[in-house]
Structure formats: C-alpha cells, structure tokens
Amino acid sequence: WNPTHIGEIQRLENVQRSFTRRIQGCKELTYWERLKKLNLMSLQRRRERYCIVHVWKILNDLARNDIGICFQQNMRLGIKAEIPAINKKSQMSVRADYDRTFRIRAAQLFNLLPANLRSIKKLDSFKIELGKVLEQYPDTPPVPGYTTTNDNSLLSWRRTHPMQLSCA
C-alpha cells in the first residue's frame, strides 16, 4: 500500500506528527521543524525510499521480481527501469490510476537517481549514497494547516526544485 492522494498522505503523516509533538523540546516546533530536529524523514519520504530500494534489490537479484519490472542499459544514462507505455487514448482517470501503481511510481523514482548511484552493487553502500541524495530535497509533507510547494514526492520536487539529484 503506497498512498498517493493528498488526503491519504495527510492522514498517515498525522500519526507521526501527533507522536513527535509529544517529544520533549519539540512541542513548539512545526512538524517540518520536528522532522529536521529529530533527523526523521516523513512517512511519505520513507515509503518512496522503500520503493527505490526495492527496485534496486530486484535489479540486483536480492528480491523477487513479482511486479514484472524490466531494466535497460543505456550507454549514456546507465541502467534504467523500463516504464511500459499506456494507451494515450485511455481515459484520464485510467492513466492517473496507472501512474499511481507501485510498479510505475517505483520505476520513476528509481530512474530519478544518478547513474552512478543506480549502478552501486552493495546494498549498504547504495543505502548510504541514497540517503545523501534524499537529504538534498526538502521534506515538507502535506499536513493540514501547512502550505506546501507541492505534494512532497521526489517526482514533484524534480519538476519544481532547481537542485539536481546527484551523487557525490
């Protein structure tokens, strides 16, 4: 289960938001400030991280490929998860549902990563470098009472944030 609708994300984030408010020294901070102070990722960002790690595990035969994801090597772009096309004549609601499926979102998230990160072969090294990349992006999940720039997905930050995903 990987919610993509703002209302679903808000309901999940409210659980962590409520809990972190009870931590001593955090009561007066906004949820976003509490996440930074406690060195936590939003639940939304953790789910996206999980999607990326799962696709990497499939690529490296550490997880079953039960979602039928395929990979393609490109000389310039490195290894990429293939995203099957959907019929352009499909209803908009069908295309939106398709774009929200785990297979499509996970592949899109994985493909955001720099080629040198996607090509790392050791899980621990991959997770460390992935963490460095994720730290470059603001983590401002949608919660009631807060105004957000976008829906906080890495896919949205890619469109609106000038910083590029890059691996040092």
Tell me what you see in this structure.
With 168 residues, the chain is mainly alpha-helical. It is built from 8 helices and 2 strands; from the N terminus they run H-H-H-E-E-H-H-H-H-H. A two-stranded antiparallel ribbon has the order 1-2. Helix 3 crosses helix 5 and helix 3 packs antiparallel against helix 7.
Average pLDDT score: 87
Q: Helices and strands: which structural class? A: mainly alpha
Fraction of residues in helices? 40-55%
Shape designation: globular
The total of beta strands comes to 2
Q: Give helix and strand order, one letter per element, not per position.
A: HHHEEHHHHH
Largest sheet descriptor: 2 strands, antiparallel
For the biggest β-sheet, the strand order reads: 1-2
Q: For the terminal residues, how far apart are their CA atoms?
A: 32 Å
Fraction of residues in β-strands: under 5%
Gyration radius, to the nearest Å? 17 Å
- Poorly predicted spans: none
Helix segment count?
A: 8
Describe the SSE topology:
Blueprint: H1 6-21, H2 31-37, H3 43-59, E1 71-74, E2 78-81, H4 92-99, H5 102-112, H6 115-118, H7 123-135, H8 154-160
Antiparallel strand pairs: 1-2
Helix pairs in contact: 3-5, 3-7
Q: Gist?
A:
The protein is mainly alpha-helical and 168 residues long. The protein has 8 helices and 2 strands; from the N terminus they run αααββααααα. A two-stranded antiparallel sheet has the order 1-2.
